[in-house]
Amino acid sequence: MRDAVLARIHAREWPPGAPIPNEADLAAELGCARATVNRALRALAEEGLIERRRRAGSRVAAHPVRKATFAIPVIRREIEARGATYSHLLLAMARDRAPTAVRARLGLSEDTRMLHVETLHLADGRAHAHEDRWVNLAAVPEIARADLSAISANEWLVANVPFTRGDFTFAAENAGPTLARNLDCTEGAALLVLERTTWNVALPITWMRLSHAPGYRMHTEI
Predict the structure, then answer these.
(1) What are the chain's domains?
(2) Does the pLDDT value for residue 161 go beyond 70?
(3) What's the predicted TM-score (pTM) here?
(4) Rounded to an integer, what distance in angstroms lies between the CA atom of residue 176 and that of residue 160?
């Protein structure tokens, strides 16, 4: 169903800005259930190819925007997929009050106790990325008992904690003295830094800052 609708958009049978027939008419024309049409249109709307408005119906997007999809990767698998051997070092793990900026991103109060975890991810024994993470213990109390020296916080959370939404921020930054030492690079070296927050519905789960060693390349598709 999705492919049939997409073919008409690509063939300009429905040009940019044009209205799309209502779900009942499309279902009758294509010989399928209305629910199938609804799912197909919803998927195309999520991809940025059509616009849906209550009561006004659906239209082909006048300026389609393809959306890149970012999954939360297990860093071990990412390194192993490149043919390298993965390992990690647990640098720090303690219950503490998070910095003001972290609490603000997660919408947590000043007295919220969180778990602070620092991890160095290695590829073939060389520094790959430094992870600075704060976990909301009210959302994930079990992580305080996890052996994060045996499994990284990244992999433990992906395997054990569901999430419904998150946000990503990418930045190019220069390595300070501590990061330069951890990543075995020169101070001032250019680094790709990712910050990510995740929630389960309205419950904040974690904030994470991942600083990659110089030379890291990221690939995604749209």
Answers:
(1) 2-60 (1.10.10.10), 75-212 (3.40.1410.10)
(2) yes
(3) 0.72
(4) 33
